[in-house]
Amino acid sequence: MPNTQTCPICHQTQPEIQTIPYSALSQSLRTSIQFHTPQINEEDHICLACFESARTESFAYQLKNNQRELTSLEKRVIQTLHDRETIAVSPATIDETLTVGQKISDKVASFGGSWAFILSFLGILVIWIIFNSVALTQQHFDPYPFILLNLVLSCIAALQAPIIMMSQNRKEAKDRQRSENDYMVNLKSELEIRTLHEKMDHLLRSQMHTLMDFQEAQLEILQKIQNRT
After folding, report:
1. Which of left, alpha, beta for 146 (phi over 0: left; psi -120 to 50: alpha)?
2. Are 187 and 77 in contact (CB under 8 A)?
3. Is 143 helix (H, G, I), strand (E, B) or coil?
4. What is the pTM (predicted TM-score) of this model?
5. Coil, strand or helix: which one is 13?
6. What is the H or E stretch that residue 74 is in?
7. Computed from CA positions of residues 34, 84, 185, 69, in that sequence, does the dihedral angle turn out positive or negative?
8. C-beta of residue 95 within 8 angstroms of C-beta of residue 174
9. Residues 6+ apart with CB under 8 A from 220
10. Please, are residues 82 and 54 in contact by the beta-carbon 8 Å criterion?
11. Spatial contact of 10 and 24, defined as CB atoms under 8 Å apart
12. Which of 19, 52, 86, 163 is the most exposed place for a label (fewest CB within 10 A)?
């Protein structure tokens, strides 16, 4: 029969291999657990479910030290830490499937901000003015002062401006989503690194205590050998 341990938090009995010694936890986790379970001892073992809950609560407490309320992004980070899931999002995932209107607005915005548009537009204007100014034919469809040309230019400007704004708004939303994703990744990394440092400090302290015990035992053995000689 495998050895079992009873978790002092949820009072459920689990195989020892599925529990974690309370003495092996970092100081922040020990403080969080002891706050809710004062009767816990150094020899106790806690189950993995209670460990994850205490770990999540410890992360939330660290964030609340900097501000009063947790934002939705920070709550998502804590949830991913609890579920041990990745939070980074691929740029290809952010570039969602575009609708027909979004594709058109992107193409219009891309073409409207290029030299091809400027040169082609200037060419059309020059041809229009020359055709309606030079007396090569009497059938001028838009004679001076080019009222029809002004109407066409006004219509193009009125239609092009909101289309370009739609493309810019979508790109701003995409940039905002990228910045939020970067913030969550950085926050999760910071919390994980902080926890890792606490674990390393705890490991060093425990190992130092063990090394001191070994050193004392070696000194006692050497002392006994010297006494025999």
Report:
1. left
2. yes
3. coil
4. 0.50
5. strand
6. helix 72-83
7. negative
8. yes
9. none
10. no
11. no
12. 86
Residue 19 phi, psi (nearest 5): -125, 165
Q: Which contacts of 175-182 are long-range, i.e. CB under 8 A and separated by 24 or more positions? A: 177/94, 178/91, 178/94, 180/73, 181/87, 181/88, 181/89, 181/94
CA R_g for the chain: 35
Residues of the chain with pLDDT under 50: 1
Pairs from 98-107 (Cβ < 8 Å, separation ≥ 24): 101/166, 102/166, 102/167, 102/170, 104/163, 105/163, 105/164, 105/166, 105/167, 105/170, 106/167, 106/170
Query: Residue 15 forms beta bridges with which residues?
Result: 4
Report residue 16 as tokens: 């020892």
Calpha distance 18→188 (Å, rounded): 25
- Hey, which bits of the chain come out as E strands? 4-6, 13-15, 19-21, 45-47
pLDDT digits (tens, 9 = 90+) for 158-202: 888 888 888 888 888 888 888 888 888 887 787 778 777 766 766
Q: pLDDT (tens digit, 9 = 90+) per residue, 89-108?
A: 666 665 566 777 777 888 88
Residue 156: the pLDDT is 87
Q: Taking a C-beta distance cutoff of 8 angstroms, is the pair 202, 27 a contact?
A: yes
Q: How far apart are CA 13 and CA 73, in angstroms?
A: 35
Alpha carbon distance 151, 122 (integer Å): 16
Rounded to whole angstroms, the Cα distance separating 23 from 210 reads: 14
Please report how many Cα atoms fall inside a 13 Å half-sphere around the Cα of residue 68, on the Cβ side: 0
